[in-house]
Specification:
globular; 278 residues; six-stranded mixed sheet; alpha/beta; Rossmann fold; 12 strands; four-stranded antiparallel β-barrel
C-alpha cells in the first residue's frame, strides 16, 4: 500500500503544502549541498572551507552548520587576505565565524610579497587578485588540506561550468579539465595521492538568484555593503569606485557621496558599486 504524507514547508519557500516527500527547488539544492559536505567529512582527513565573507561562502558555512548539527563544524575556514578588503567585510567575517564557532585561518598575500615568493605589480590601477593563487596554494600546502570547499557556481562563467563538484588538483595545484572523474548518480571519487587535493564546490548547481533567495528564506546575515547605503565614491571609466585607503585618486577625479550597493565583495581597489539611480 502506498503511503502519502502531506509535507508543508515551514519557511514558506514555495508558499504551499506538498503531497509526499517532494522537495522544493531550494530544499533540493540544500539537500544536495549537505550531502556533498558530509561526503567530504567522511572521505578526507583535513578539509577546509574558503571563507571571504561574501554571499556564497556565507551560504556554504550556513549549510555546513546544518550538515553536522548539533555537532560542531568539523573543519576550519580559510580566508586569503589580499590586504585590500573592505573594512565592513573583514568585520563581518570575524563576527560571523565567531558566531558559528569555527576556527578561522588567514593567509596573507603580503607575507608572500615580503618573502619574495610573488611579485606585486605596483603600477597604477594594479590589483592583487592574481596574487591570491600563490598564497592559497601555500596555505593548502602548509595546512596539509586534502579537500578545499569553494563557492564557485557553474552559472558564473564558462570555465567554472566545466568544473566537477569534486574537482581534482595535482601536486602543483593545477586543474586539468581532461583529468577529471565522472560523477554519475551523485557518486564522488575522492582518491588522491599525497600532495594532491580536491576542490569541492557544493554550490555548483546553484544560481546567483538561488543564493539570494536562500539567504532571504533562511534569514542569513550578510555584510552591510550588499545593501543600499551612503558612501563616498568616484566615477572612473563609467563605473563607481568606493573612495578609501586602497584606491588612489587620479588627476581630475572628484569624490562625491552617493547611495550605492555592491553585488560582490572583492578587493576595494577593483570592485565597483551600483547606484540606486541606475
Amino acid at each position: 500500500m502506498a503511503i502519502t504524507r502531506a509535507v508543508t514547508d515551514p519557511d514558506g519557500v514555495d508558499g504551499g503544502p506538498h503531497s509526499g516527500y517532494r522537495l522544493t527547488h531550494l530544499r533540493a539544492l540544500e539537500a544536495q549541498s549537505i550531502h556533498i559536505m558530509r561526503e567530504v567529512a567522511a572521505e578526507f582527513e583535513r578539509p577546509v572551507l574558503l571563507f571571504s565573507g561574501g554571499k556564497d561562502s556565507i551560504v556554504m558555512l550556513h549549510l555546513a552548520r546544518k550538515a553536522f548539527w548539533p555537532a560542531p563544524i568539523p573543519f576550519p575556514v580559510l580566508h586569503i587576505d589580499t590586504g585590500r578588503n573592505f573594512t565592513e567585510v573583514l568585520e563581518f567575517r570575524d563576527r560571523y565565524v565567531e558566531a558559528m564557532g569555527v576556527k578561522l585561518l588567514v593567509a596573507f598575500v603580503q607575507d608572500d610579497i615580503d618573502a619574495g615568493r610573488t611579485i606585486e605589480d605596483t603600477s597604477p590601477r594594479a590589483t592583487r587578485n592574481r596574487l591570491q593563487t600563490a598564497t592559497l596554494l601555500r596555505a593548502i600546502r602548509e595546512g596539509r588540506h586534502d579537500a578545499v570547499f569553494g563557492g564557485a557556481r557553474r552559472d558564473e562563467e564558462k570555465a567554472r561550468a566545466k568544473e566537477r563538484i569534486f574537482s581534482f588538483r595535482d601536486e602543483y595545484g593545477q586543474w586539468d579539465p581532461k583529468n577529471q572523474r565522472p560523477e554519475l548518480w551523485n557518486l564522488y571519487n575522492a582518491r588522491h595521492h599525497k600532495g594532491e587535493h580536491i576542490r569541492v564546490f557544493p554550490l555548483s548547481n546553484w544560481t546567483e538568484l538561488d543564493v539570494w533567495n536562500y539567504i532571504g528564506h533562511e534569514r542569513i546575515d550578510t555584510p552591510p555593503i550588499y545593501l543600499a547605503h551612503r558612501r563616498e565614491v568616484v566615477q572612473r571609466d563609467g563605473m563607481l569606485m568606493a573612495v578609501g585607503p586602497h584606491l588612489a585618486l587620479e588627476a581630475g577625479e572628484t569624490p562625491y557621496e552617493e547611495t550605492v550597493r555592491f553585488r560582490t565583495v572583492g578587493d576595494a581597489d577593483c570592485t565597483v558599486a551600483s547606484s540606486r539611480a541606475r
